[in-house]
Amino acid sequence: MRIDPTELGAERIYRLMTGIVVPRPIAWVTSLSATGVLNLAPFSAFTFVSQKPPMLAISVGRKGADYKDTAHNILDTEEYVIHIADTPLMQALHDSSVEHPPEISEVEHLGLETLASERIKVPRLAAAPVAMECRFRQCLEFGDAKSRLIVGEVVLFHLRDGLVNDGKVETRALDPIARIGGPRYARLGEIVTLNSLFQTPKSKD
User: Fold this and answer.
1) Count of Cβ atoms closer than 10 Å to residue 10 Cβ
2) 8 A C-beta contact, residue 13 and residue 5
């Protein structure tokens, strides 16, 4: 089977790519509007781009002709929190993708408890096993749809007790949710451990 992307519209290409690039980690992002409304939204176009300093990237698209609230909020305030959700939070994570008007807080609508962040003004979700306080660093626009790739620096990590062993995160204990095509999600299946291979150290520490 061969598919020529020049013959497809953006929505059909999106459905194709989100079914191919799987599974995808999900950045569950809290951000504050200029008027103080706490927004919450999930983004599965998400990865890390630097380890020193730690930097994360999310791709934020549009809702209709305008950018999503998260993009507006991050560019306005330059602060946000990226969470990793676990299985008990799957329904809340999915429900937070509903497009509400900017004056509606998804956090309040879903009845989620928050905690104050330590280095930024944006609150974090109390129930999430991982929360990363971020400051905005760079924004790039890509493609005809002008999706915004937003890069931020993690200024503080919050991890649930028991998740870190000898400096490494216990992935099974984290129980992260992954996104696949459509309104479908996945959990970890079998974890296969292979022998370690030599790699040049990334730094002296």
Assistant:
1) 13
2) yes
